[in-house]
Amino acid sequence: MEQRAVVTAGTGGIGLETAMGLAARGFAVTVVGRDAERGARAVERLAGVTTGGEPHFMAADLASLADVRALAARLAAEGPLKVLVNNVGAMFADRQRTVDGIEATFAVNHLSPYLLTESLLDQLRAAVPSRIVNVSSGAIRAAKRTFDAVEPPGGYYGFHWYGRAKLANLAYTLDLAERLRGSGVTVFAADPGGAATDLTNGTMRSPKIVSPALRLLWPLVRRTFERSTAGPAALAARSSIVAATDASLDGRTGLLIGPEATPVPAFRGSTDPRTIDGVLRLSRQLAPVGHDR
């Protein structure tokens, strides 16, 4: 039977390299993105390396919860799903809201993968042993660990808010792993480290993304960012590929795969019950699934 894999934000950067790795390992990969032209180019590249089924592209704006639900319905209609890689990520220099009126950083980096994953659990259960991989970030270290509301108190600073949204998703990921333990669906987070991508080449060059205290040290902070995001996307994709496919992880779950493509300790705060409770409450309120509606 054809083994299906889905990679969101898979038409370029780390996502495309992840999709290439999965295709080369025998998966029929569907990449998700907003731009049909980029999607067509991605499918062409995947076709050149695949050892499994035919690759596909599906268009969706992952900042829209309606689009995520429609995407989930299309993917579900195709049957069992072996691997789901939630690679989507976005950082914004200025505060933005989605079409749903939700702060965009939280919506794209957490609510989107949360809603897609929860909507596809039946398809993942139908393909066990199957895996879910949620892409994390070292920016979590700069996050405020408060989830009483979508937006944390204080001013908007893109890097810190990005880290907080990724913290929310990591907390969800580790909680989901426990919820699905023993089901045959295993769950991993993957930290790619840094790479030169559209995200890092644009937003991370602006001092607006960090707090005023760090802006005083901007030349040093910028050099740190530049060093940490200078590597190739193919190298950064290793953690996701390993999390999705490596046989050494068979039967294991709830692990964070670090930039060296080996398990590392989860970031502090991601297992805090208060963080988990706050994240799940916000997620169910803003992106209800099935019985949550």
Please tell me about this protein's structure.
- With 293 residues, the chain is α/β, with parallel strands linked by helices.
- It has one domain: NAD(P)-binding Rossmann-like Domain (Rossmann fold).
- The protein is built from twelve helices and eight strands.
- It has helices at 13-24, 36-47, 65-77, 104-119, 121-125, 158-179, 198-202, 212-215, 218-228, 233-236, 238-245, 273-286; strands spanning 4-8, 28-33, 56-59, 83-86, 130-135, 185-190, 255-257, 263-264.
- Helix 1 (13-24) runs parallel beside helix 11 (238-245).
- The longest helix is centred in the middle third of the chain and has 22 residues, at 158-179.
Classify the fold: give the CATH topology. Answer: Rossmann fold
Give the amount of beta strand, in percent. Answer: 5-15%
Which CATH-level-2 architecture?
3-Layer(aba) Sandwich
Uncertain runs are none
Biggest beta-sheet profile: 8 strands, mixed
How big is the Rg? 18 Å
Question: How many β strands by DSSP?
Answer: 8
Q: Domain count, please report it.
A: 1
Determine the mean pLDDT. 90
The number of helices is 12
Fraction in helix? 40-55%
Structural class, please?
A: alpha/beta
Shape: globular
Strand order of the largest sheet: 3-2-1-4-5-6-7-8
The first-to-last residue Cα distance is 34 Å
Order of helices and strands: EHEHEHEHHEHEHHHHHEEH
Q: In CATH's first tier, which class applies?
A: Alpha Beta
